[in-house]
Amino acid sequence: MSLTGALNSAMSGLRFNSRSSNVISSNIANASTPGYARRTLSISSNGAHLSGGVRINGIERHINTQIVSDRRLASAEFVYRADTAQFLTAVEDLVGTPDLAGSLSSRLSDFESSLITASSRPDAVERLNSVALSARDLADAINSAADGVQDSRTRADRSIATQVDRLNVALSSVQELNSKITAAGSQRLDTAALQDQRQTIIDEISEMVPVRVLPRDQGTVALYSTGGAILLDGTAAEVGFESANVVTPFQSIDDGTLSGLTINGFAVSTSSLSGKLHGGSLGAQFEIRDELAPEAQTQLDALARDLIERFEDSTVDPTLVPGQPGLFTDQGAGIDPLTELGLANRLSLNSLVDPDQIGETWRIRDGLGAAAPGDAGNAQLINALVDTLSTTRVPNSGDFGVASYSALDLTSTFSSQLGSNRLREDQLLTFASVQLNELTELELADGVDSDVELQRLMIVEQAYAANARVIQTVDEMMNTLLGI
User: What is the mean pLDDT of the chain?
Assistant: First the structure.
């Protein structure tokens, strides 16, 4: 090898060592940076040329695409389960468990106890007043639970609107980064930082909508939802949604009173079974708004209907005429099966016995249709009211099967259903959390290891010194030759 060749080889080695130290220091500095992938220099021998040495081909990002893909899907599943579990927990808190004061079961027990107490002294006005107040508390508790369910639907609708806006911005950002990566690659510029940024944005998208990332030409990628929707392939899709200010029990996606999703102007399914974008936080909010909350509303409406029907029976209160509401009403009216939707929100105490509406509580003892007070010592009607609460009957609506229930058993069954659903969702959430943690650890294991990077830096330092020594030796040889 000539002295010039040796000098060129050593110089190329110094350039490689300089670039290597820069890459290694960047790895160490970004060890905890989200989306950052470990880098190394891609090199090859320059031996085909007279100068020899090493040729730097570019910077390589080291990433296990399969692990990253699995981690993204696990992240989407975790967020989905966390949102649905949070909703079910909130509904369970609204209804309450039977052992908690203020729960529906507790309110119903208090109402039944007040009737039993009044039956022992039907002449005591304060006991009749207690019956009216406990009945109103029961109706208010059912109202509050139903209103809470609708508030959850409203929050879900607003969350959908926010996420759709974020999704559109993120998709546009990925499209822009694709263009920048293509342009940088054509100029042989480093695209690693752009790819890191793109990965971070795709991670954000995958929490809202689980996606598959497909490589395309010139370093670009395409994004498809796991449900088969094209979110980005060349150009970003436009996801459409129209938010409602307030969601009521009478609004649903099926009748068009609530908005669904569109992709590039075409409507797509949002159901939990066939939704194109189901599986992440966006799908969870649609499931809460359109499936889970309406199911809870249906059960609450069934409880309210059962309560109204028990007390408007003329065999319980003979003073009632057909069509006249009993102790509990649908905003003052009797039960109408055709308008059951939202009944739990409208349930109220009959104004004839409501002290706040100039009602007369003696009617609890003598009958709602009585023209005047009767025998103050007659507890027959109050006992009938107690008996109708404990009478078992098959609910006329709701998802309670064909079994017969007392009023308290029906309420407890609903609480049990909520607890069972919440427990099952918590178990799925725990599994999703463990899966996400494991995949995150696997991804981190393939990331930056500071100890390994420091060892590489020491090797670079030694190589730098060796190349510098070669240059020094060539310089000495040149001086010797010139001195001959």
Answer: 90
